[in-house]
Structures are given as structure tokens and as C-alpha cells.
Design goal:
The complex is a heterodimer of chains A (about 130) and B (about 650).
Chain A: H1 4-31, H2 36-43, H3 47-50, H4 58-67, E1 71-77, E2 84-90, H5 92-116, H6 122-128
Chain B: H1 9-19, H2 22-25, H3 31-38, H4 44-53, H5 62-81, H6 86-93, H7 96-106, H8 109-143, H9 154-164, H10 172-180, H11 201-210, H12 212-223, H13 237-247, H14 276-297, H15 301-318, H16 328-331, H17 333-348, H18 355-367, H19 379-392, H20 403-411, H21 416-420, H22 423-435, H23 439-458, H24 475-479, H25 481-486, H26 488-491, H27 500-527, E1 556-560, E2 563-568, H28 591-597, H29 604-612, E3 623-626
Antiparallel strand pairs in B: 1-2, 2-3
The chains are: A mainly alpha (about 130), B mainly alpha (about 650).
Chain lengths: ~130, ~650
């Protein structure tokens, strides 16, 4: 059990990451229809950031997005002799949601960079000294 | 180009729902998870992991669970296909319980809520109905085993006297002919009590004049030795129609063309015994009594005597038929009516009859129903319950499955069709059948109750105390709510017979008072004055001084202002010298009502308790028997 500063920071991180996962999934589905394992493969480079608790957590997330009517699915086969899979795709509402999320993340990034000083001109900093 | 084979999403979902049974839909069947896993080649460990991940997701309805399991199966299948091991996939999957918890949190709340609401209503109802069905089936299994097969035919037994009598000795055919011969529609005036409340004399006289033929038939009927009424389960519509027309009374009972004719040989329930004859005899008695009074007014005492004798014969006939317990006080009503007429004549016009005629009337009055004390005969009460038992119990002593229907048929109560049908009726029947005691137990209880009732009735009024050991309602009927259900067949039959023993004691007392009043009149004629005591009437005019039914001592007699007064100590069992109960102050507490209150049934212990309470004056007074107490005319009453 985590406690103290380390535990608190992990909780914050998790909350942040919970916001990243839907954004990432929506962004991927915005490119093309994908089934579950394709999404996992696409998210694999960022697995620790998007699915830190395990790959299995993608599926409740897909359910969640589906209940919000941001995505929908269709069961079909990829090829004539291939297995049936649930292919997820973005809905129009999902596209709008993705746009909103994108703006928020960009805003959040901007704030983060401002606060951490990464966006501040070097001269000003030096001048204040 | 991939060949895509797909179904529209909505169609797929609806097909899934159709494929799922309602039990799967509400989560009570194996469901799509097991169906899908059964078709895969995943290892048992992987399948266990998937089950765990979907174990407590509360995903509803079935297509959501199907989608989830398809995705998880595909995850492992695709992972394995890409060269990952099952172990690696399981580790990468994460904690299955946590995944399940995430599923639970992310499921469609709105849909689940509606579904929950639906299930909240439907599931309990379904389960309740199911439980009812199972309960009923169990009861049916437990109690089925045969139908009732009544063997004792009480109708044949009760009709035996009528069948044995010769046609020329039967009075009923002539009584019936007399009622059918009634003309006019003014008989309503005969419904009033005689004579204080009777209608206008001229109206009665018109009725009598119009119906001389009918009266003649009634006199001939009264002269016959046996009533000879044949109990039939079929309503005599024709007779009732004529009777109703004449007296202006409407009766709810009526058969129609669809009512099947029932034969006595069919062994109908005893509850369907019809007492038509009592109603008709009452009318006959009243007609004859009024005609007697009219004959006296016309100066024809012989005709009056003839009619009064006939009226007393109708009273005899009313008690001639097998005594139906519940109607015995009704049957003695005829006797009471003649009694009142004789008391009036003795008080108002004692000279109307000669000594020989009064003597003859005295003998006729004393001979009704064999003379002596008029006793309650409760045999038919026993028969009624035995008859009920043989219709609601099988031969081996268990309640019949459809007990309510059997009970309603056996007791002749209405609503049989409603009771016969319906799941709830059958369930209720099964329930009653289940909780009902065995026939042996019920019979034992009934015998105990009836014996106590008969013991009570057999005692003269002054020896009746009605403590708990004599009380005819067992305590458990009153105190125990379950007892009310368990002993419903008995309870439903009892209230009718409770007042009969008391009512008959009162009739005995009134008749004895009239016999004594006749003896007093005859004594006065012989001696020129009233006797000082009733002992002076014995043995020439009375075989013995009648007893006061309330204290068991000789009937009370006194002279007030030189006029005789016969009375009983009444319900307070205390001789007040012939004083009527004092007015209570209530506007309708008339003298006749106070005198009627004096013969109420109140146990002696209760009276003693009242006496200790000096304020209690409800019963403080005597029961005046002769001359009759009368209310003053309305316009002379005190405001």
C-alpha cells in the first residue's frame, strides 16, 4: 500500500492518465476502424501511459465510450476465413468529443508549460535575476 | 480487399436478445459468457481469467455481456496468434477483478437503472407467482386423493313424514291452494303486529271479505293432521309470486329458465332446505286471527272460535315439520300471534266467548306442539354440519382440493361461479384445505360445541348461567385469528342458532300467561271476583301454577286497583311488584320497548354486577305479561 508523497503523486498521475486513455483511443479510431487487439498494438509504445494497469483495461474503456455514444461497433470478419471481431469506429458525437478533448489537452499542455517555465523566454528569466 | 461479412449492429443485438431466453435476459441463465467460452479453444486457465474479469460487471442485457466476452476472447486469441504466450497475455491483461470493477463502473448506468426498475417489479412478481404455483402444486399433491362422496341424504330423511302421510291428511296442498286463491293486493296491512300497530280496520275487513274462499281453504288445511310439506330444492316461483303480489313484499330469490331442476334424490345440500311453508303459514295465521276478531265484532262467536282454533292449528303445523334449528323461533311466531290475540280479547272483551268456549281455546292453546315447555330441538344443527362435512371432506377424512367451491355449494351461498374459478380461488382453497383441521377434529369440536348448546337449551331459563363452560362459542374462535380461518366451516354455521333457546322460553312464558289469564277470567265468572292468589285456580282451572321462567318460582300475580296483573320478575330476577322498567330518558324508550327489554337474555352474574352499580337501571323492573303493555297514542305522549 502506498502512502505519503509517493502515493499521492501516483493517484494524481492515474487521474491524469485516465483522461489520456479515452483521448488516445478516440484519436486512434479517428484514423480507422479497429478491433480490440489492434488498438492494444497501436497503444503498445505508450502502454505505460495509457493502460498502466494492464491491457485488459482497454475493454471497459471501450464500453464506457460506447455508452457515451462516442464509438460504436460492428461484428465482422476481416477476411473470408478470418475470425469475427468487434470493430470499433468513431461516431459523429465521438468526433466532436475528440475535438473538445484535443482542445483541453492542448490548453492543459500550454498551462503546464507556462507553469513549469518551458514556455518562458530565457532572457526574461535572466533579467529578473 | 477483404470480404466483409457483417450484420447491422442493431440487428445483431436484437438477434442476440431473441436468442437469449428471458431467464438469461434477467440474469438467471447460463448466458452468453458461457455460450461463447464453450465455443473457444482457449485454455481453462484463460477462460477462468475471462470469467473473473466479467464476473461482477453487472452488464445488462445479454448483448452487452456477449460483446464483452467476445472482445476478451479475441484479445487472447489475437495475442496467441501473434506469438505471445498465454502466460504473457495473462500478465499483460492486468488484475481481472479490477477489470471487472472497471466494467461495472463504466457500464451504461441509465440502461441498468431502467432494467433494475423493471426487474424490481417483474422479478418479485414472477417469483411470487412461481412460488404460488409451486405452493399450490404441493398442496394439491398433499391433499388430493379423491372427491367428496356424500352418502347421507337428509332431504329424504326430512321428507319421510310427508311421504308417509296420506294425501287426504296433508294440510300443505290446501294451504298452498288458499294462498294461491288470495285476491286483491291489500295484504300488506297483515304484516303489522296485532293489534296495537295494525292498519286501518276497514282495510283489513275489505281484505277478509274479498278472500272468504281463500279463508275457507285455509280452515280446511288447518283441520288436517299433518302439514305434509315436501321439501324441494327448487324454488316455488308461482306461489311466491302470488304471495308477493298479495302482501306487497319483494323477494330476491327467484329461479329462471336457466336454473336446472334439482331432484331430492340428487341429495342436495341441507342448506338449500326451503322454509316457504313458514312464511305462508304465518300469513294464514294472521288472516284467520283477523277473521276471528271480525266475526266477534259481527256477533258470531262460534265462527270466531272456529277461526282461532284453525289459527292455533296453523301454529301447530308450523312446528309439525322437522324442526329446523335456525327457524324454530320463527315457527313459534305463529303461536305467539294467536297468543296476543287471545290476550287482547281477554283484556278488552272477555265476555266475547262463553266459559265452554274459553275452556276449549285454553285446551287448544295448551296443546300446541304437545303442550308443556316449548323446547328447542337442535338436531338439524347437527345434521347441517354433518351434511357440510360429507361435502367438504373426502371419504378418508381430508378436505377436498377445491374447498371453497365445495363449501359454497354445500352452504348454498352465492358467488359460486366466482369461487369456482381462478388461480387465487384455487390457491385460497388449497390454503384453507391445508390449514383446515381433519374431519375427525372438526367433528369432535362441533360435538363439544353442540353438546354445550344443547345442555344450555335443555335447562329452563332460570337455571341457565351461561358461564364460559356453557358458552357455545369456543374461546379460540374469538381470541385466535388463525382459529377463525381454521374453523371457518363451523363458525359460518353457528350464529343462527344462538337465540333460539331463549326465544322459545319466552314463548312458553307468554303462552302460560295466556292460559293463566283464561283461568283468571273463568274464576272471576264463577266467583264474581279475582282470586287473591293463583293457587286458587288449581286444580279446577289450571293443573298447576305456571313457573316464572326467570326465577323458577310460580308466575307472579297481583291486583292493582282491583285489576289483575300477571308478570315475571324479568331479566333482573328481582320482584318489583309488577313495576315496568323505568324510562331511560331516551325519546324512543316506549313502554313496550321497556317491557321487551325486561325479557332480554343477560347472565345472572352480569345482573348482580349491575345491581352493585346503583346507577344501573337498565333492567330494574318486571316483565309484564298480562294485560299487555301498550304505548300511549302518539299525540298523547309527553314531549
Amino acid at each position: 500500500m502506498l502512502c505519503g508523497t509517493e502515493g499521492s503523486s501516483m493517484r494524481i498521475e492515474r487521474q491524469l492518465l485516465q483522461g489520456i486513455a479515452p483521448y488516445a483511443v478516440l484519436a486512434l479510431l479517428n484514423r480507422k476502424e479497429m478491433h480490440g487487439y489492434e488498438l492494444i498494438e497501436a497503444l503498445a509504445p505508450h502502454k505505460d501511459a495509457v493502460l498502466p494497469d494492464g491491457e485488459g483495461f482497454l475493454y471497459p474503456l471501450l464500453f464506457h465510450l460506447q455508452t457515451k455514444k462516442w464509438i460504436t461497433y460492428e461484428r465482422r470478419t476481416a477476411s473470408e476465413d478470418g475470425p469475427e471481431r468487434n470493430y470499433y469506429k468513431l461516431t459523429e458525437e465521438g468526433r466532436e468529443a475528440l475535438e473538445i478533448l484535443r482542445r483541453r489537452w492542448e490548453g492543459m499542455s500550454s498551462v503546464t508549460e507556462d507553469v513549469t517555465g518551458r514556455n518562458t523566454p530565457v532572457n526574461d528569466t535572466e533579467g529578473s535575476m | 480487399v477483404s470480404a466483409v461479412t457483417s450484420l447491422p449492429n442493431e440487428n445483431r443485438q436484437s438477434t442476440d436478445i431473441q436468442r437469449s431466453s428471458i431467464w438469461q435476459y434477467i440474469g438467471l441463465g447460463p448466458g452468453p459468457i458461457e455460450d461463447t467460452l464453450r465455443e473457444t479453444d482457449l485454455s481453462p486457465e484463460t477462460q477462468r481469467l475471462i470469467r473473473k474479469a466479467l464476473g461482477r460487471t453487472r452488464l445488462h442485457p445479454a448483448h452487452q455481456r456477449r460483446q464483452a466476452v467476445q472482445d476478451l476472447v479475441a484479445y487472447f486469441q489475437d495475442g496467441l496468434a501473434r506469438g505471445r504466450t498465454a502466460q504473457e497475455l495473462a500478465e499483460a491483461f492486468g488484475q481481472p477483478k479490477t477489470v471487472a470493477a472497471r466494467f461495472f463502473r463504466t457500464a451504461d448506468r441509465r440502461r441498468v437503472f431502467l432494467l433494475k426498475a423493471f426487474l424490481f417489479v417483474l422479478t418479485p412478481l414472477s417469483l411470487y407467482e412461481l412460488a404460488q404455483g409451486v405452493w399450490f402444486a404441493i398442496l394439491m399433491l398433499l391433499i388430493s386423493g379423491g372427491a367428496a362422496s356424500p352418502t347421507q341424504n337428509y332431504w329424504m330423511e326430512y321428507n319421510a313424514p310427508a311421504l308417509a302421510a296420506q294425501e287426504s291428511e296433508k294440510a300443505w296442498p290446501l294451504y298452498r291452494a288458499g294462498i294461491m286463491a288470495l285476491r286483491g293486493t291489500s295484504g300488506e296491512c297483515l304484516r303489522d303486529e296485532f293489534p296495537t300497530e295494525r292498519a286501518d280496520d276497514s282495510q283489513i275487513i275489505a281484505v277478509l271479505r274479498e278472500n272468504e274462499h281463500a279463508l275457507d281453504l285455509l280452515r280446511h288445511a288447518a283441520a288436517r293432521p299433518h302439514l305434509g310439506y315436501f321439501y324441494t330444492p327448487n324454488f316455488d316461483d308461482e306461489l311466491y309470486a302470488e304471495y308477493s303480489r298479495f302482501v306487497g313484499e319483494r323477494f330476491a330469490r327467484s329461479t329462471d329458465e336457466t336454473t336446472p331442476t334439482i331432484s331430492v334424490a340428487d341429495n342436495p345440500p341441507i342448506a338449500k332446505l326451503d322454509i316457504t311453508y313458514l312464511r305462508m303459514l304465518r300469513l294464514a295465521t294472521r288472516l284467520l286471527c283477523h277473521n276471528a276478531v271480525y266475526a266477534l265484532e259481527q256477533g258470531h262467536p262460534n265462527d270466531a272460535l272456529s277461526d282461532l282454533r284453525a289459527a292455533l292449528r296453523t301454529a301447530h303445523h308450523a312446528r309439525d315439520q322437522f324442526p329446523l334449528a335456525d327457524y324454530q323461533h320463527w315457527a313459534t311466531g305463529n303461536l305467539q300471534y294467536v297468543n296476543v290475540v287471545l290476550q287482547e280479547l281477554l283484556a278488552e272483551q272477555p265476555g266475547a266467548f262463553s266459559t265452554a268456549q274459553w275452556t276449549e281455546l285454553s285446551h287448544a292453546l295448551g296443546a300446541v306442539s304437545g303442550g308443556g315447555r316449548i323446547r328447542a330441538d337442535l338436531r338439524s344443527r347437527r345434521h347441517a354440519v354433518d351434511d357440510l362435512f360429507q361435502r367438504i371432506y373426502t371419504a378418508d377424512g381430508y378436505p377436498v382440493p377445491n374447498l371453497l367451491h365445495a363449501f359454497s355449494t354445500a352452504t348454498g351461498c352465492s358467488g359460486e361461479d366466482e369461487i369456482r374459478r381462478g388461480f387465487w380461488a384455487l390457491s385460497a382453497s388449497a390454503y384453507f384445505a391445508m390449514v383446515s383441521p381433519s374431519r375427525a377434529e372438526l367433528r369432535a369440536i362441533h360435538e363439544g360445541v353442540l353438546t354445550r348448546t344443547e345442555t344450555f337449551a335443555a335447562r329452563p331459563l332460570w337455571l341457565r348461567t351461561l358461564d364460559s363452560s356453557e358458552f357455545w362459542w369456543p374461546d379460540f374462535w374469538l381470541d385466535d385469528r388463525q382459529g377463525l380461518v381454521r374453523y371457518m366451516p363451523l363458525i359460518s354455521l353457528y350464529p343462527g342458532s344462538t337465540l333460539v333457546p331463549h326465544s322459545l322460553e319466552l314463548t312458553t312464558q307468554r303462552r302460560d300467561a295466556t292460559l293463566t289469564a283464561i283461568a283468571l277470567e273463568l274464576y272471576r265468572r264463577d266467583h264474581g271476583d279475582w282470586p287473591a292468589t293463583l293457587d286458587q285456580l288449581v286444580p279446577e282451572l289450571l293443573p298447576a301454577v305456571p313457573l316464572d321462567r326467570f326465577d323458577g318460582r310460580p308466575l307472579k300475580y297481583t291486583l292493582i286497583d282491583g285489576k289483575p296483573l300477571l308478570y315475571s320478575v324479568g331479566v333482573d330476577r328481582d320482584d318489583d311488584g309488577g313495576r315496568l322498567i323505568a324510562p331511560s330518558g331516551e325519546p324512543d324508550d316506549t313502554p313496550t320497548r321497556r317491557n321487551r327489554r325486561a325479557n332480554d337474555w343477560v347472565p345472572p352474574d352480569d345482573i348482580k354486577a349491575m345491581r352493585r352499580n346503583e346507577k344501573e337501571k337498565t333492567y330494574d323492573g318486571d316483565w309484564i305479561l298480562w294485560p299487555r303493555v301498550k304505548d300511549p297514542p302518539e299525540d298523547s305522549e309527553q314531549p
